[in-house]
Amino acid sequence: MLRKLGTVSGLTLVSRLLGFLRDVVLAATLGAGPVADAFMLAFRLPNHFRAILAEGAFNAAFLPTWAAADASGRDSTRLGAEVLGWLTLANLVLLSLALGATGWMLAVLAPGLSPTDETWPLVVTLTRITFPYLLCMSLVAFLAALLNGRDRFAAPAAAPILLNLCMIGALLMAQHFPSTAHAAAWGVMVSGVAQVILLAGAAGRAGLPLPRPRLGLSPDTRLVFRRLGPAILTSGALQVAIFADTIIATFLPSGSLSHLYYADRLYQLPIGLIGVALGTVILPDIGRRAGLGDAVGMRAVLDRALLICLALGVPVAVMMATLGDWALRILFVRGAFDLAAAEASAAILAAYAFGLVPALALRSLVAGFHGRGDTRTPLRLLAAATVVNIALKIVLTPWLGAAGLAVATSAGIALYAALLFQTGRTRGFLTGPSAGSSAILIASGAVSALAIWRWRDVILDALVAVGPAGGVLTAFLVVVSLSGAFHGIATFVALKVGRARS
């Protein structure tokens, strides 16, 4: 598991570092005003649908089914061709609706934005440029599932690198576009085509024939559709909460969407490196073990994944909550992105930090159900968590502003993860880290957080007094190094305790 995780996490890290470089350029050129909000909205809309059609739901229904068919010698090529046919048809229908009725779609999904607003024509134009990205990413998800089913993780993990490279390249050539926002939107669109080409080539090198789309309904295809319904509803419920962020943020002061975006960029870094990477690696493994009836092996895989989430998530959450303002200043404060924007984003990031560990564990917990062919239970549990999430957004946002959206998100994720964990334990396919290990790791996080709040400004002042080499970046590196060493020792002790009690 660790070797595969290292491959996925390493390439994801490269992608996220390039993503931060992309966002540095975006922040410097677009800032956090109305034009930036217009691009952020146009960028978020296809990604909302992508999360429903092209990632979680599709992988949950298709990958375990295809892996089982491929391993048992059934006609996996026909299955792939039929699923690809229906996936392409659904995307073409959605794309035609989005391009032909963009104004209606924006009126539904961003009601705080009115056709009388000065940025309305720009949002419509940018959305029409970015929305075809959804079709490309659906094809990428299909090819990635084929590759992951054969334990080929490198190319799918590397694909997002192309998004960042294309957007950076487009932004550097912004003078050739009507505006910087237009350049960024075209960079998104071009990157989708580039990712399809990358994964198609990787599939060919892996000996996976590229199926020709067909609209058939073999028994395995019907099984995919039976699993897909609950999986789409699950992904849709997750996106309802994210849609709620977009909708409510359009009623908040100008710049709120941008503040959410930059906070979310830091929040998503550990989720991509740890949570998503773990879920990607263990889903086909759990699917194979479930097919073989290996309950012990499946439980060991899930328990190991959850321990990794806890051991790595606690120190990262502490640093997000206590050092987020420094990180945002280092990364983004330049050009049109000022200290006030960084402070507003830091408040949102601190609220996200409280739900980070459950967010890291979600992909692994859901994989435990999806790998066993159960796409209904996560949907049922998510429904309750989504109601709580949206209710809290409505209650907290008038009081806390955009940070209230993040608090509600953290609470909803924590509830969903707790329900999944308890259900998995009841059904006997996961146990989780030992109580002693968990207590040590959580206590180390609390101690570290208190120490950072007490000493971070003292360390910064001392380094500034030393000379020109001192500053926020140096202080950030010193505090992170000290905190990381402390958590490393705590993790070592926690692992010892866990082994002693196992």
Q: Percentage of helical residues?
A: over 70%
Query: Major sheet, described briefly?
Result: none
Oligomer: single chain
Return the domain count.
Answer: 2
Rg is 23 Å
**Distance N to C terminus:** 20 Å
Describe this structure in words.
There is one protein chain. The protein has 502 residues and is an all-alpha fold. Helices cover 84% and strands 0% of the residues. α11 packs parallel to α16. It is globular, with a radius of gyration of 23 Å. The mean pLDDT is 81.
Please give a quick description of this structure:
The chain has 502 residues and is mainly alpha-helical.
Fold blueprint:
Blueprint: H1 2-30, H2 34-72, H3 76-100, H4 102-109, H5 120-130, H6 133-149, H7 154-172, H8 180-205, H9 219-249, H10 256-292, H11 295-332, H12 339-353, H13 356-370, H14 376-400, H15 402-427, H16 435-466, H17 472-501
Helix pairs in contact: 1-7, 1-10, 2-3, 2-5, 2-6, 2-8, 2-9, 2-10, 3-6, 5-8, 6-8, 7-8, 9-14, 10-11, 10-12, 10-13, 11-12, 11-13, 11-16, 11-17, 12-15, 13-15, 14-15, 16-17
